[in-house]
Write a structure and sequence with these properties.
single chain; about 375 residues; alpha/beta; Rossmann fold; 2 domains; 6-stranded parallel sheet; 13 strands; about 15% strand
Amino acid sequence: MTAAPRNVAVVHDWLVDRAGAERVLEEILALFPDAVLYTLIDRMPAADATRLPRRATVTSWLQKLPGVERYFTRCLPLMPMAIQQLDLSGHDLVISSSHCVAKGVLVPPEALHLCYCHSPMRYAWDMQHEYLRTEGLDRGPKSWLARRMFHRLRAWDAYTANGVDHFAANSDFVRRRILKAYRREAAVIHPPVEVSPPAPGRERQGYVTVGRLMGYKNTALMVEAFRRLPDRELTVVGGGPQLEGLRRVAPANVRFTGPVCEADKQARLAAARAFVFAAVEDFGIAPVEALAAGTPVIAYARGGALDYLRHGDNAWLFAPATPEALANAIVESEAGWDSDLHQRCRISAEGFGRQRFRREFEDWVRLHWAAWQTHGPSP
């Protein structure tokens, strides 16, 4: 019988808020409650920190920088060095939860390293040019510095993939990214989604989108699409660095709520005619939450969301990513849905709950741990 791992380490990029990667981390730590958690910085708000069932947390020297949670993204050039200063000696199983540098941690040769990859660094790989444009870094001296930094990050990121024994991806889209960036195969294990029971039925009015307001989310595209549809309303739920700028230029039929509580968010999802989604996401948890509320999704036809969105069934897909294409899709969808739409949406979300993730992730770890104990590292 294969012996269980004695000393497990879980490595996560950073803890500053509770986003999709942190929800995955919660479930990994629930499966390995005695694991030691390693992360660059831990400045998670107290209410969210209580959700992480950790025995101990070890942080990097970046944790000592005053107020680092306000500017930690500017520390990106320092992160590869910082993550490799974490000492994982004595661990026989290392699980990295990585969307930036966590997978680059230095692992003892006798330890198995499994990486759940939310995505290779998208801003350094296939989305570099889009990121530079949205952040205003596409020309001038700052652009030259940013491009050089991303070049160095890509080289480091590709090289450190050699230290990972096996990868898992959160979608088929990310699986293909891993293959392209690292030339490595990956299992697909979809992330856990809070699939809440549907709210009591009521008349659905208006459209909704939920997410952190950052450039790659393409919220500005949605705003411009609804400028072309003055007789339809869009509610934008969430905060972020673009909130005030978008609010200033938005037409009267686009309303911004800022951050809301979970119950309010779920109520808004259940009351909307459709959820609007224009980002190229690695997976996209918010659209699944909308489906669980019986709400169809109008989405850009690219990214991890294509693992579960089906045109004309639970979604209406549009391309290219332009305000005109989105506005046309909204109008077309209103005449294209069938009568059992809301029931189909709920059914399509049922397979993404926590228990499914825990079962698949635990099976994946057990499979590779047993092989490691029997045969050692794979060539």
